[in-house]
Backbone:
């Protein structure tokens, strides 16, 4: 007898197998429910993603009962997913705003865990390191300083043979925390040249209408434009300049010193900003950028920024794993900081470690 | 040579140049994926398919969890999406005057153009948020929704291509309607239908946007259960290409080549079916 399976029957097998997979999986998950394994998921800042991909394998190697993952979705999305309890922790370049912090006061913990730096990079066939300050940068991005050999540029760089070429000022075309740091620095260093309404994640660049302004998407885009455009200048995250061997300008800090970006000068800025920072992870961090950008101190690099981790105070059965992660990040994790980031200073680590005692089941 | 011949030559030249202009960018993309990806895979060796991805400036590692996730998701979403599409298409072709069937037709055509990120957001809103977690289940459902309009449209077209006389012959032999539809119509159109299914499968292999807010991107463990977090090659490429680190860019190129080869394999198989379509 010929045995034939009819097409509809065969086709119905597909969804049945799918449903079987779901049911078996759910039953399996319930059965596994009381095992000791814990799965932690974080989401947010894409800037910290490479650093996370160093921390995650090292952490899970030490704590094999924890599965740790991180989704680089962007700081804003990370906060949203954290507050809707989709993820266990968030990473965010800006801290929680005061409003959000007030709403969740006592329930959320924040901590700056690594430092980033925005660097001024340029494409200039001239020997020597360029020196810049907030005033000249503001004037460049306003379209007022238009030539490399402008008197203000020559004054900052007495030894350099600056050419009479137009400056092509590159900036981000997308909304970006990097732009926020850069414009905030311009405002703090030279408020009369760069008013507060030109500070933010995306701004109307005056240089676009008055001079040679060019927008590019992402740090990667800005890096590419600068590499391909002679006589251009722009701002990118330190790691992009390091990875592509781009020259980096030294920038005049609040004490009047020209400081080159380096892990030391960046950590120095956080050290000098420390007296202005909150003393507990439970506190309001919303103004910490104000403390660390254009920070006081002789050796502080002025374009320094934080990346924050955001946690709850209560975690149920995940509390132990979260505590260990906080401890790891603020102790040995600081020795594993990737190129392009800088570790936080020891004072800040001990403030962050107070969170270990605040995280409860 | 008179004016008409010259005109024809010019016309021919323009057509050739324009077609080249249309095709060359595709070849450029294809070649640069091979060019950049091959070196990476040669250097990483077979471990590229077995290891977890690397940290910044720490070698090449591999893409095992992402590869497993992509394959599993494509199979799971096909298990769900292909049969549903098949029934929807049969329904739409077999009952052309039924208002519901008309709805299926219009909807499947309209959904072809839906931005895939919308599908991701839909599953995020109706499944991920209520469940309180990202999961392979959510990813598979998002991909199934992505593929249904494609496969339905292909299967509809394949069924419509069957001459009406075959159907009449079936009824004349006294066969029941389901027998005519599934044994005769589907039988004759089977190659077109299989092609549609494979194209749906290939489509979901490369999707990124529906997975952004559904999957949870676990890059270190191979997913198995419906509640596990998962990853896909497309998401890995998306994230790694945006980092500043050269080794992570290389992993992204290698992953792009793996994905392209998977895509090509499915495409070649489906080509074999279409070549044999004529009876």
Residues:
């Amino acid at each position: 007898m010929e045995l034939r399976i009819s097409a509809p029957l065969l086709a119905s097998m597909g969804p049945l197998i799918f449903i079987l997979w779901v049911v078996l999986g759910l039953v399996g998950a319930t059965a596994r429910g009381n095992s000791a394994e814990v799965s932690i998921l974080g989401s947010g800042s894409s800037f910290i993603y490479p650093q996370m991909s160093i921390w995650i394998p090292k952490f899970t190697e030490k704590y094999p009962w924890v599965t740790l993952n991180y989704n680089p979705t962007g700081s804003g999305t990370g906060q949203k997913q954290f507050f809707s309890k989709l993820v266990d922790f968030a990473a965010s370049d800006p801290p929680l705003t005061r409003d959000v912090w007030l709403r969740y006061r006592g329930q959320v913990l924040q901590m700056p865990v690594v430092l980033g730096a925005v660097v001024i990079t340029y494409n200039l066939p001239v020997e020597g390191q360029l020196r810049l300050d907030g005033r000249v940068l503001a004037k460049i991005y306003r379209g007022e300083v238009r030539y490399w050999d402008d008197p203000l540029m020559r004054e900052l760089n007495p030894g350099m043979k600056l050419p009479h070429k137009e400056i092509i000022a590159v900036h981000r075309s997308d909304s970006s925390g990097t732009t926020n740091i850069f414009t905030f620095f311009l405002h703090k260093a030279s408020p009369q040249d760069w008013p507060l309404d030109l500070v933010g994640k995306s701004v109307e660049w005056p240089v676009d209408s008055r001079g040679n302004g060019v927008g590019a998407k992402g740090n990667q885009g800005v890096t590419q434009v600068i590499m391909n455009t002679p006589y251009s200048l722009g701002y990118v995250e330190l790691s992009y300049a390091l990875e592509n061997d781009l020259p980096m300008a030294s920038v005049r800090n609040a004490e009047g010193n020209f400081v080159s970006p380096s892990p030391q000068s960046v950590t120095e800025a956080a050290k000098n900003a420390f007296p202005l920072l909150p003393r507990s992870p439970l506190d309001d961090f919303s103004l910490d950028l104000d403390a660390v950008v254009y920070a006081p101190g002789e050796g502080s690099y002025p374009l320094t920024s934080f990346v924050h981790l955001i946690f709850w105070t209560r975690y149920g059965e995940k509390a132990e794993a979260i505590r260990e992660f906080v401890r790891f990040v603020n102790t040995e994790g600081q020795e594993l900081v990737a190129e392009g980031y800088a570790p936080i200073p020891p004072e800040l680590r001990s403030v962050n470690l107070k969170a270990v005692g605040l995280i409860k089941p | 040579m008179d004016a008409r011949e010259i005109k024809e030559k010019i016309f021919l030249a323009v057509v050739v140049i324009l077609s080249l202009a249309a095709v060359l960018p595709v070849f450029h993309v294809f070649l640069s994926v091979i060019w950049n990806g091959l070196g990476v895979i040669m250097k990483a060796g077979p471990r590229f398919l077995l290891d977890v991805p690397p940290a910044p400036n720490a070698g090449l590692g591999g893409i095992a969890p992402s590869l497993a996730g992509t394959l599993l998701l494509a199979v799971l979403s096909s298990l769900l999406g292909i049969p549903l599409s098949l029934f929807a298409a049969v329904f739409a072709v077999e009952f052309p005057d039924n208002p519901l069937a008309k709805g299926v037709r219009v909807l499947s055509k309209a959904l072809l153009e839906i931005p895939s990120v919308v599908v991701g957001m839909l599953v995020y809103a109706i499944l991920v948020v209520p469940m309180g977690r990202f999961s392979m289940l959510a990813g598979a459902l998002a991909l199934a929704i992505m593929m249904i309009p494609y496969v339905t449209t292909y299967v509809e077209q394949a069924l419509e291509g069957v001459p009406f006389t075959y159907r009449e012959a079936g009824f004349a032999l006294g066969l029941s309607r389901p027998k005519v539809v599934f044994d005769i119509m589907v039988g004759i159109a089977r190659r077109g239908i299989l092609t549609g299914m494979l194209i749906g499968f290939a489509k979901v292999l490369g999707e990124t946007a529906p997975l952004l807010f559904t999957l949870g991107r676990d890059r270190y463990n191979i997913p198995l259960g419906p509640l596990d977090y998962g990853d896909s090659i497309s998401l890995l490429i998306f994230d790694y290409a945006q980092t500043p680190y050269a080794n992570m860019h290389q992993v992204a190129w290698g992953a792009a080549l793996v994905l392209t080869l998977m895509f090509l394999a499915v495409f070649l198989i489906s080509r074999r079916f279409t070549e044999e379509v004529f009876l």
The mean pLDDT of chain A is 93. The first helix of chain A runs from residue 7 to 32.
